[in-house]
TrEMBL record:
The lineage of its organism: Bacteria, Pseudomonadati, Myxococcota, Myxococcia, Myxococcales. Homodimer. Belongs to the class-III pyridoxal-phosphate-dependent aminotransferase family. BioA subfamily. Keywords: Aminotransferase, Biotin biosynthesis, Cytoplasm, Pyridoxal phosphate, S-adenosyl-L-methionine, Transferase. This is Adenosylmethionine-8-amino-7-oxononanoate aminotransferase. It comes from Corallococcus exiguus. Catalyzes the transfer of the alpha-amino group from S-adenosyl-L-methionine (SAM) to 7-keto-8-aminopelargonic acid (KAPA) to form 7,8-diaminopelargonic acid (DAPA). It is the only aminotransferase known to utilize SAM as an amino donor. The gene is bioA.
Amino acid sequence: MDRATLVGLDKQHVWHPYTAMEQYIAKTDPLVIVRAEGVWLHDADGRRYLDANGSWWVSTLGHRHPRLVHALTEQLGSLAHVSLAGITHGPAARLGAELTALAPGADRAGVPSEQKLSRVFYSDNGSTAVEVAIKMAAQYWAQNGRPRRTRFITLTGAFHGETIGATSVGGVHEFRDVFGPLLFDVVHVPSPAEPDGHARALAEVKAALAADPDGIAGVILEPVLQGAAGMWMSSPDFVREVREATRAVDTFLIADEVFTGMGRTGARFAVDLAGVMPDLLCLAKALSGGMLPFAATLASERIFQGFLGAKDRALYYGHSYCGNPLGAAVAREVLAVYRDEDVLGQVQRKAPRVKAAFERMAATLPGLVRPRAVGMVGAVDLGGGGYFADSGWRVYEAARRRGLYLRPMGNTVYIAPALNIPDADLDLLLAGVEDSLREVAAG
Ligand code: PMP
């Protein structure tokens, strides 16, 4: 089918995420991608684009890493899907063992076994990984003598997903306000990434815990890097301090590492930068290397034990595709590739170049503010304007003409490419971002 016909069908039938459709149908000439390999997207016109954001941050090993393709096809040859109801299978069981062995603190001596993240609950995507954590925490408290513990503390700018529970604990107005009446009540505290935010955020977390120690089910946060807020970054110290505050009143810390997990910050998990073990850890996106939807929520042994003993203590949760063998097999191979290709080492080696490039852009081009970077994420803001202001789109267009697929979030221009991006492609990417910004800055 030719390109024009495809675009016609798309515009007639497909409703795109986070897209104002009238404008899209009238004005957008979408990329029609026919193939992707490594960091490159190939379109129907024979052009290629460097994927600056790893396809909404999932593609940490590049598109169609040969070992992941192989693992997927191998698994497809024997078992594509079966429910985990009274059944188990190799990929789910073995991945469970491998993930918990890599979990924060797993190899630390002297950690009480009840604090270890020794249990895994599988689901399909980042939102459900968070939803699982919310329900696990709430049900744990309900059946372990603290039934009033139903409120969560969350940060301004937090993004935890699309489902109603995950939206409820979110803190970006644009994403939650329209659903306001449907959302449950949470305690919002400022983000540590806001100017002078760290001390204020910590004080408000402590105050909220002190005000209602019997009512707080947990604190949920994206450690170190709040992605969808606009790549807001903060010190690992904040995570450590919140951990101490939650331990002081014996409530939970939920780390949403859907974006930051699996090496994005240069550590395997962002909480590792703080030396912190959360009670619940949410993973998705990179867990299956951008191959297919798959997610996991790691839970402490204490939480798991809270579901044993009495007659009816099933966690009231389960999706059709929980523990899907294809996803689990690919995730196992993702872990193996990280080990064999020293992906974390690669990020640590390349990260200073990303940071230096964004700092240079902000220092040399007009109108750029707040250059920042952590691991394989670099970002800078276009000065002035609201969240959905226009200049981000001008950067997108300028980048597209240069063979870069770069989608700013509002006025934040950022990159979050594959962690194993080859050096030469990283050079191309950084130069392309700089050139695109220069073009837009020139007006
Ligand atoms: N949590 C965080 C921190 C995220 O960045 C995202 C997605 N951007 C989600 C949860 C939701 O993940 P998904 O889109 O896979 O549902």
